What does this fold into?
Amino acid sequence: MRSERAGAFRLPAQFQVSRTGGGEAKRPAAIVAAPGGGRPLPHDSILIGDCLAEMASLPEASVDLVFADPPYNLQLEGALSRPDQSLVDGVDAAWDKFADFAEYDAFTRAWLSGARRVMKPAATIVVIGSYHNIFRVGAILQDLGFWILNDIVWRKANPMPNFRGRRFTNAHETMIWAARSADAKAYTFNYEALKAGNEDCQVRSDWFLPICSGAERLRDEAGRKAHPTQKPEELLARLILAASNAGDLVLDPFFGSGTTGVAARRLRRSFIGIERDPVYADAARRRIDAVEPLAEEAVARAPARRSEPRVAFLSVVEAGLARPGEKLTDAGRRHSAVVRSDGALALGPAVGSIHKIGALVQGLPACNGWTFWHVERGGRLTPIDELRATMRAAMRAAE
Ligand SMILES: C[S@@+](CC[C@H](N)C(=O)[O-])C[C@H]1O[C@@H](n2cnc3c(N)ncnc32)[C@H](O)[C@@H]1O
It folds into this structure.
């Protein structure tokens, strides 16, 4: 791992570029021509400096995803102690202090504008925050023309208790996910892959994850936390998997201990991190050095379901792959229904689609009939989704 001053890449004097490496992870930082032939983008680098100046030095419309964990402006009033009088290791760093809300809002407006400038038209941004700042961030995002897609609640499995006992335990943080503008419809959301990894259910906007602790928590030689607000890698991995593809460029203007770089590198995205404090930047660089990227097949883009030809269950019946009068069952053979000649299923007097009848027998509001229902073929229960796959293969072969 080397730390280099600008010059080497002909970046402006205020840049200090740290290049990351390690195994496959030890490849030198690639320098890629910026869109439009401008300054090269410092891929896989930590830029040490103020994010306003550093973002202004990056070419317009050059990044695919922004993750930002800005100062929260926590407004802590004095030291906080536990019932046993030990001190709580809260965030009281100078970088989190602002004179008043107006100063915080002006700062937020400035860095969000800088981030918007470097976002490609289809890029998205995720900003994480707590009740102290997230409502202000949300309003400013909307004022600047961003289009909010979701607010995701990170429910903490192990939140810090409320020691003063005068409020509810603060057990979540909020992430606002926004597109660059309302008409930016082509943003990345890996819907099918996320759903496939979630037992074929749509992924919800409330995530239950522990805060960063144990071996994952970066510590200095004295065993103290290297950074007060290190985020869990899994949180970043979920966001990056959802909103970017392998090879994409992720920008984090408040890099801290480098969690975004760790997740990006592991998932074969490239990153640019900006951090004002060289001590944090150095800790981040060493942390990222130790990361081995996953195998390419483990992170390759999943084919979008929509690119597959649509197949109705009636077509499966018409093709003779499922026979009228035949019984379908679930994998545990607890429920059964009869295939009708019109491609619907019959369950006693009830008639409906494979999805409707699947939901009915389970008492659920919805069901994916293709994966729920099975047919007996060669002495083995086969999901009817396999019959659909046979149909699709035949349709492709006929093209
Ligand atoms: C909330 S922490 C980010 C923590 C990070 N997500 C992690 O997992 O370690 C915010 C970081 O932004 C840095 N910072 C604050 N203001 C900055 C600015 N104007 N430009 C660049 N970095 C800044 C702070 O030094 C701090 O490390």
